Amino acid sequence: MRRRLLALICVTGSLVSACGMLPGGHGRKTVTVWLMKDSASQDFLRRFTADFEHTHKDLRLDIRIQEWTGIVDKVRKALDDDSGNGPDVIEVGNTQVPLYADGGRLADLTLESLRDWGKDTWLPGLAEPGKENNQQFGIPWYAANRVVIYRKDLFRQAGITRPPRTRDEWLADTEKLDSGGNQGIYLAGQDWYTLSGFIWDEGGELAVQEGDYHWKGTLDTPAALRGMDFYRRLQALGAGPKDADEEHPPQAGVFARGKVAQIVAVPGLARAIVQQNPALKGEIGFFPVPGRTAARPGAVFTGGSDLVVAEHTKDQFAATAVVGALTGAKWDTELARTMNYVPNKTTLAGAVAGEPGVAAMAAGAAHGRATPNTPQWADVEADNPIKQYMTRVLTGADPATEARRASRRLTEELTPDL
Q1: What distance in Å separates the CA atoms of residue 313 and residue 33, rounded to the nearest whole number?
Q2: What is the pTM of this model?
């Protein structure tokens, strides 16, 4: 989940029209849309706006670009405003939807999802966080997830002719690569997003819901412990720090300096790697995180964005028309191609098949997951006990004991103040 705050830029069919009426637009209803910085290019927004306003003669768009920093408080304040003057449609991080749905702040879009928008083919990692008690509040827009970024030249030198497709193959290949002064993989000890995928692959969960409001940490289940054991074995085939996450230091820089055969990251990181080490241009490849069998890739944490409609919108019909257009096949596919995202539906994955990094993402996203669907998960990430648990295990502590300790912490953090 990314973070964001406001930069008021109103994008319209004529590029920028401040926030006034379009020429000749008298009598049109204005739909105010908050989108996040860098989610879509200015050219995409210009083309979408022109097309939407051409096909919806009674509507005009007022698209305002927001910054991630501080966006949670800003959106909450806007959703609590019942004057009808706030945003009608808002882009939110997929795991943020429970924060905003709490308290009846969002419009229920279940009917439109079933009748018009084909929810059965949505990416699960985007759709599930947008749902509460079988009501759909968040509508999937685009996704991004981790893949394995690897050095083709180091694979060739190790005699590896194709990327691994199973976890066992991955371990064996990484062990071959971890020689001659090279790291088989650079995996930071506190990369809990990657760990989550291994836990899910084993049939485990980070936490499970008990009753209407209570959640229980489950890192101490046999399945979750198997996921942690695989992480431990993989992490040992490199020199990643055991007490830091993937941003400390930024792993793009570590990879760019050479001697690292693989990292687990979003494919867009490859651009930063090549910028820091142009000699690697043409030598970087991508493959989905391997699964337990070759039948399907491993589970991954799916990030990205959903679109929501404010409960206090003046015109829900108009707001849902915008959501339907942005998330429909035409414009969702165009966004994915423009921004190198994964489209919101498994049936649209072919649209990005020509881009290797995005294609690898799409393969993983079909089996993607998100964090537990509760507003309290934000409290967990504020002082994440999963990170502390990982470091303790990787530095030699008993996994079962530390898993029980971390599970208790998760349970405490996920217990709401009722």
Answers
A1: 11
A2: 0.87
Residue 262 has pLDDT above 80, yes or no: yes
Transcribe 261-318 into DSSP letters.
-EEEE-TTHHHHHHHH-GGGTT-EEEEPPPBSSTTSPPP-BEEEEEEEEBTT-S-HHH
Q: What angle do CA 108, 317, 46 make, to 5 degrees?
A: 110
Q: CA separation (Å) from 66 to 7, 43, 75?
A: 5, 17, 10
How far is C-alpha 367 from the geometric centre of its chain's CA atoms?
Answer: 13
Paired tokens of 189 = 């000890």
CA-to-CA distance for 410 and 418, rounded, in angstroms? 17
What is the token pair recorded at 118? 């084909």
Predicted confidence band of residue 24 (pLDDT cuts 50, 70, 90): very low
Predicted local confidence at residue 258, as pLDDT = 85
State the Cα–Cα distance between residues 43 and 37, nearest whole angstrom. 13
- What's the Cα-to-Cα distance from 47 to each of 28, 90, 141, 322, 335, rounded to whole Å? 19, 19, 17, 14, 11
Secondary structure tally for the chain: helices H, strands E: 17, 15
Picking from 362, 368, 331, 360, the residue whose alpha carbon sits closest to that of residue 347 is 362
Q: Which residue has better confidence, 418 or 7?
A: 418
Is residue 395 within 8 Å of 242, Cβ to Cβ? yes
- Cβ atoms 338, 72 nearer than 8 A: no
Residue 418 — pLDDT band, cuts 50, 70, 90? low
